[in-house]
Specification:
Strand content: 5-15%
Structural class: alpha+beta
Strand order of the largest sheet: 4-3-2-1-5
Protein name: Myosin motor domain-containing protein
Keywords: Actin-binding, ATP-binding, Calmodulin-binding, Coiled coil, Motor protein, Myosin, Nucleotide-binding, Repeat
Helix content: 55-70%
InterPro entries: Dilute_dom, IQ_motif_EF-hand-BS, Kinesin_motor_dom_sf, Myosin_head_motor_dom-like, MyosinXI_CBD, MYSc_Myo11, P-loop_NTPase, SH3_Myosin
Shape: extended
Number of strands: 26
Distance between the termini: 108 Å
Family: Belongs to the TRAFAC class myosin-kinesin ATPase superfamily. Myosin family. Plant myosin class XI subfamily.
Largest sheet: 5 strands, antiparallel
Number of helices: 40
Length: about 1400
Amino acid sequence: MGTPVNIIVGSHVWVEDSDVAWIDGEVEKINGEEVVIQATTGKKVTAKLSKIYPKDEEAPAAGVDDMTKLSYLHEPGVLQNLKIRYELNEIYTYTGNILIAINPFQRLPHIYDAHMMQQYKGAPFGELSPHVFAVADVAYRDMISEGKSNSILVSGESGAGKTETTKMLMRYLAYLGGRAVTEGRTVEQQVLESNPVLEAFGNAKTVRNNNSRTKQEIEKYKLGHPKTFHYLNQSKCYELVGISDAHDYLATRRAMDIVGISEKEQEAIFRVVAAILHIGNIDFTKGKEVDSSVPKDDKSKFHLKTAAELLMCDLKALEDALCKRVMVTPEEVIKRSLDPQSAVTSRDGFAKTVYSRLFDWLVDKINKSIGQDANSRSLIGVLDIYGFESFKTNSFEQFCINFTNEKLQQHFNQHVFKMEQEEYTKEAIDWSYIEFVDNQDVLDLIEKKPGGIVALLDEACMFPKSTHETFANKLYQTFKAHKRFIKPKLSRTDFTVAHYAGEVLYQSDLFLDKNKDYVIPEHQDLLGASKCPFVVGLFPPLPEETSKSSKFSSIGSRFKLQLQQLMETLNSTEPHYIRCVKPNNLLKPAIFENVNIMQQLRCGGVLEAIRISCAGYPTRKPFFEFINRFGLLCPQALQGSYEEKVACKKILDSMGLKGYQIGKTKVFLRAGQMAELDARRTEVLSGAAKKIQRRTRTHQAQKRFIVLRKATISLQALCRGESTDLYINRRLSGKLFENLRREAAAVKIQKNGRRYYSRKSYKKLYVSALSVQTGLRAMAAHKQFRFRKQTKAATIVQAQWRCHRAKTYYKKLKNGVIISQTRWRGRLAKRELRKLKMASRETGALKEAKDMLEKKVEELTYRAQLEKRLRGDLEEAKTQEITKLQNSLEEMRKKVDETNALLVKEREAAKKAAEEAPPVIQETQVLVEDTKKIELMTEELESVKATLENEKQRADDAVRKFEEAQESLDDNMKKLEETEKKGQQLQESLTRMEEKCTNLESENKVLRQQAVSMAPNKFLSGRSRSILQRGSESGHLAVDTRSNLSQDNNNTLAYWLSNASTLLLLLQRTLKASGAAGMAPQRRRSSSATLFGRMTQSFRGTPQGVNLAMINGGAGGGADTLRQVEAKYPALLFKQQLTAYVEKIYGMIRDNLKKEISPLLGLCIQAPRTSRASLVKGASRSVANTPAHEALIAHWQGIVKSLTNFLDTLKSNNVPSFLVCKVFTQIFSFVNVQLFNSLLLRRECCSFSNGEYVRAGLCELENWCFKATDEYAGTSWEELKHIRQAIGFLVIHQKPKKTLDEISHDLCPVLSIQQLYRISTMYWDDKYGTHSVSSDVIANMRVLMTEDSNNAVSNSFLLDDDSSIPFSVDDLSKSMERFDIADIEPPPLIRENSGFSFLFPVTD
């Protein structure tokens, strides 16, 4: 990029930094080849002189839109320019004809709407701000005008916005040429909707973007959550925030409808996709035979069966196709089993083949649906290509991707070199010695036969015993001396390739497996025998030679062949490049990572293009910019009247530079020469600053010296005079004291006397003034009171009258609105009723069944709840009973124990008594009574046990009944869920049907518009012409609209506009609708004394319906005497057609004037370069009222001349002033829109000097409006409010001191925040070098824009041109001047003819 030269102390430079790539600073010290730099970040950096680059301190604050305009075309300059523009939401930047697009990670709808597309349509490339539409437009214009095919290559890494950029390209190209209708759908719709289909089926989720598309859970396909499928859970990403899979599914189905895929084909497509997902879930295990495999478990068998059902093929045949292979020998056909690992490979190959065929079918179907012309001679190809990739693990996929980028980079380098040559040839300079950097050696390393990497890979794949180790060793031996091939030191299988974007380490472990691709006949035969016609169509019969056995096919060779075909296609077209850049890895807005972006620019070839430019002449300055910047180096070149080219040569020769070139319009400088000129310029400016400082300090020192000298002289004189006057003062001091004492006494007496008289006169004057003031204030108070009283009374009267008038108007308006709303709602209700009737026929029965099931579920739920409550009560009662029984049992046990203890005691007592007593046996009843008690307690215990058993049995019965009810409830819930699923499916079907109806309505609207545009452009139909003919035959006034009007002849159009509007006014005043009451004629003043008064009297006997009193009437009569005629259908139809005729002529006149001034408006928005150069050369500061000023505003004077001629034409044909005013109001609105939009889209127009130029032109328009008077100009000047306020902002001084409130409320109240932000960021001062508004104001604007973007419907900063008809028949009728024809004097021709004497006034 050129070694920096003339770096001196104080120079501003760029130096490398490991964190932010580049930082800027100022040189503090230079020690040989080392430089000490004070960075703006605060730290000091020491770097080598060859590693720093100069910084352009005069670069625009908002950056440049084309980086070839940079004074220093190097890495830090490019990065800084992109960063500045990205912070201002300027995401597009040119580098020559290459467009760099930085992903904003936020929606910017205002730069992609229809207004923006209209602005870029047909605009020259580079005239407007950089945009993707500009690239598409230049490609389209080249194809149309020159018949050449064009290609647009969109590249960048994942997440850089390639897909969105491609969408915008397709949208704009469809906008330009896609309005044709095929099969009821516009080509534009099909092109735009083809992208969602291809994106849904062809874009995968990667680690750097979020294009994931999962399928809708559809019960009939037996699908579940994505994590349950092997082909969907590899990335562990199942859902994304802000993305609805259901919404994307419906959008995909809608897009498939639009591109022409039928409902049956859509169902078949999703069946195939679901089958692929099920195939991925089939696992294998070892079979009974050696090296055989079978489905692993019931889950695998289920997925195998489901896949067979979806593909409509034989289950056993599908299993054999996955687990076995057929080997054909000359003697017999042998079936060989596959081991589980080989079966998994077969399974994945089968799924990949089916999905590949499905995607190819979709592409062919979309191309056929759009209707691409196979015989077209030219085309525009849009290529969305992946960018250069380098990861921690790089396999065969990254190798193919980087190989493609190497090929495209070579094509890119050749294109850039070609553009450089065209630029040099255009400027007629010598370029023969410029070297060209090529990467052919890398391409030879990869693709050259027979010794390239791809050829060696195919050779290794042909040998069964080859491994990745043998392949790597072969590479090491073959390319050990190649400078682009590097063998790593710590690996035996890896290898490194030095690509243009850097070194990439590849792992060759899977190169051989991924390069092999077999065509398996079993898969072909299986799917060819499917019962589904769609699946059979995906697999047509194979040729004879490929159907016998499995044949090896190299993916690498096939990829290289396809890439070669792509390059041949690109070489046959005119390429256009768009490089997409991802500003950060967080995927968030307003984050600019320098290191990441530098790597992308390097990988995208942008820096390589800069190197190519630096090999020639990297700095190119137009003559006037070069003179403006470096004219001070050679003042002699500016003092003489030299041409710009000669002045530039004198400046360069005075600096002693060699090797530069001077073209036709630019100065071309070699690398380093710009820095040398800037260094010399810095020295000159530094010397001038030092001289100014020296002169200023000298002036200040001289001024201080003079003051000091005067003070010294005064002090010396005083000291010298004191010694001389000391003696004299002693003699005179006595006399002086006496005189002073006398004088003081006299003064005191006089003072007291004057004070007395003054106080006396003041009091008298004070009393008089109080009296006068009291009287005057009383009068003023009375007067003000009367005025307020009158004002209050008038206000009350006005308020009551205005209230009455507003209430009356409101009632009329309300009645009309209610009637309109009622009719419109009735119409909508009928339409909705028809739709609901159609929908109810399909869903009525299902809804009834659903309602019945819901009722049953409610009943079962109620019963289950009731049983649950009863069971709970029963359990509680049983628990209480058991508790009571247990307590009683415990009490009984205690009693039994007590009884037993007593019994034991009694027995012991009895024994003792028996022993002591005489041997006479006596019976006692105690033992018998105790025994009875024990028996009774035992019986009670048995009854309690029986009761407990009964309760347990009842509880078991209740539990069993509850379980049965629960099972019944579960069954009903399952049925309810199935019913809800069916309802959801019906709801989705209904939603799709509504979307289809919406699309059909939009298509019908397009068809109606096309039908209207195809209709002949005639003002009146044949029936109306016949009516007009009959009217003319019956004596009524008629207009022959069959006469061919010249649409470009304003004089003829103005004539017919005047007559037609007058006739329309007569009809408006004389016709009334059927059923309306006629107006009775009123008395009017006598008009028999004049010509037309006698004519009116003579025709008083005219039959009703004939009224020859033309536009007569005044304040007290006139039009009120006209008798309105009840109009029939032919008259109303004639009036309607005449209204359309007036509106058509009005529109033609207005459009003619627009066409006339449109070419001049493009010249009026930007000042000519000669005027800017005159400012540089030191021309006169005041050029007003000079020939130079007249030449400067010649284009504006051309517009004024056109307006004046047009006004004269309308006046000469007596066009009503109301229509003239409307025409000019719309014309000035058109001028405002064109100038304002051009100002916002072209940065070179947002300069201070250009603002002065446009302001001078606006003064010319203001002067024209003043001369035309309000009668004809009306409010035309107010229509220019947007451009006036914008220009006022450009030319105002001290912009950094202005606050946002002052700008938005005082300076530019009409402009929106988006418009103010656009002007503020694009402004640059080419006259005084001042800056735009402060950074705080810009930040506040961005905050307000972010807030407004959430609420506003459209964020567009452009204005719309209103081409509607701004008046109605009633407006025209109210605006016409009323006059009495009786006051009109007859013309001299009638007065001189004696045959008309009966019309003269009667004299007594």
